[in-house]
Amino acid sequence: MTFDRLDLVSKLYQPSGWPRILEAATGTRSSGPLVVDLDPTTFCDLACPECISGKLLNQGRFTPERLAELAGELVEMKVRGVVLIGGGEPLAHRGTRQVLRVLGEAGIAIGVVTNGTLIRQNLAELAAYASWVRVSVDAGTSETYRLFRPDRKGRSVFDKVIGNMRLLAEAKRGALGYSFLVMTRQEPDGTVVTNHHEVLQAAELAHDIGCDYFETKAMFDDGHHVIQVADEILTSVDDQLDKAAVLAGDGFEIVNSSTLTSLRNRVGPVQEKDYHRCRVAELRTLVTPSGVYVCSYHRGNAGARIGDAVTESLPEIWRTSDRGIVDPTRDCRFHCARHRSNLELEEIGIGTTAGTLAAPEPGTDYDPFL
Questions:
Q1: Backbone CA torsion sign across 150, 156, 158, 163
Q2: What sign for the dihedral angle of Cα 291, 293, 297, 301?
Q3: What InterPro entries does UniProt report for this protein, alphabetically (predicted)?
Q4: 193 φ/ψ angles, rounded to the nearest 5 degrees
Q5: What is the pLDDT of residues 301-335, one digit of tens each?
Q6: For the packed helices 339-354 and 18-25, what is the interaxial angle rounded to 10 degrees?
Q7: Handedness of CA 67, 325, 43, 85 (dihedral sign)
Q8: Is 337 helix (H, G, I), strand (E, B) or coil?
């Protein structure tokens, strides 16, 4: 099989994770997740009006001691990749630097999703240990940034974030990404504000900073359904991305997310699923101060909570929890980036049972973030 770094299905066929892939594919409880999303804190220093986690912010954090223990437990569980994310801003926790060191020195791949305001304070660890850092910018100018990503006093910290990204671009070993969420908002007075007109400008800035990729994404609503946009906005975004394509090459990529592709294909906000168990839930999980959840789409959903990482060890939670408490047919009618992975795991299970499936060739690992 030919691997594509952007294809989550292909990532299932990497040899180091194959034993646990087979466990998930055949309906066996996996011996541990391959990837963990970890929210160190629910605190955030920005006040983005469209924040999908807005209702969950500023409600708790792990103590530095417990966060360090969690890092050790992830190493113990032989997790292959950890994404520091939120929830809140992961770099806002003073224990995150230690987590980066522990995981990095253990050889675990680390991804970081950040607003970029605190990169400077964590620069050494991010540069040394992060496999990738994706900065949510969502603008190409300071004024548009202020409209969509203001700080708690309503100010723009755009210049600070871009300056921090330049510092990391000079020092990094892993990849640096510039993320642009296409947003439109109607104000109480009827005025419509949008950022879609700055896609090209942001892509050019990402290239100038020294980023490895520029990614555009569509918005989700609170239920994780992709928000549909007007034809003229989608056309504008696509026209700008066509112009930005000349920037690609020499280590710089223009990346289209699956959510933007779904808008182009007019698939609508609902993604139907005909399977009752999420096999990917045996391979990925979400750990937050408020609980451990089946996946990041269900952050804060009590019906998808499988444990409490504040008081319980992760290995014990994994050993005793029921990852089948979520029924995708009923509970996951939103756009899920790993829907195709679930369909592929079902096919792998069928092939395994029939004895027709060959194991992947050794030595072809390339990206643990399936």
A1: negative
A2: negative
A3: Aldolase_TIM, Radical_SAM_PqqE_MftC-like, rSAM, rSAM_sf
A4: -115, 145
A5: 999 999 999 999 999 999 999 999 999 999 999 88
A6: 90
A7: positive
A8: coil
Instruction: Give the range with max mean pLDDT: 56-65, 68-77, 251-260.
Output: 68-77
pLDDT in tens, 185-230: 888 888 889 999 999 999 999 999 999 999 998 877 666 666 777 7
130 neighbors 100 (Cβ within 8 angstroms): yes
Calpha distance 205→109 (Å, rounded): 27
8 A C-beta contact, residue 137 and residue 202: yes
Element (H, E) at 291: strand 291-293
Q: What is the CATH number of domain 33-335?
A: 3.20.20.70
Q: How far apart are CA 359 and CA 352, in angstroms?
A: 10
- Domain range summary for the chain, segments of one domain joined by +: 33-335
Query: What is the 8-class DSSP label of residue 279?
Result: G
Which class for 324: exposed (0-12), middle (13-18), buried (19 or more C-beta within 10 A)? middle
> In whole angstroms, what is the distance from residue 79 CA to residue 89 CA?
22
* The predicted structure's pLDDT at residue 220: 72
| CA 360/CA 366 separation, integer angstroms | 13
As a whole-number percent, the residues of the chain with pLDDT over 90 amount to 77
Please calculate the CA angle 62-68-71 and round it to the nearest 5 degrees.
Answer: 105
Six-digit token pair at 260?
């933007």
Hey, what are 50's tokens? 């469209």
pLDDT score recorded for residue 50: 83
Q: Minimal CA–CA distance to 112: which of 90, 93, 128, 95? A: 90
Helix residue ranges, H only, 210-338: 231-244, 258-264, 314-320, 328-331
Q: What is the pTM of this model?
A: 0.93
pLDDT at residue 2, as a whole number: 37
Query: Residue range 236-245: average pLDDT?
Result: 95
Helix (H) or strand (E) holding 184: strand 184-186
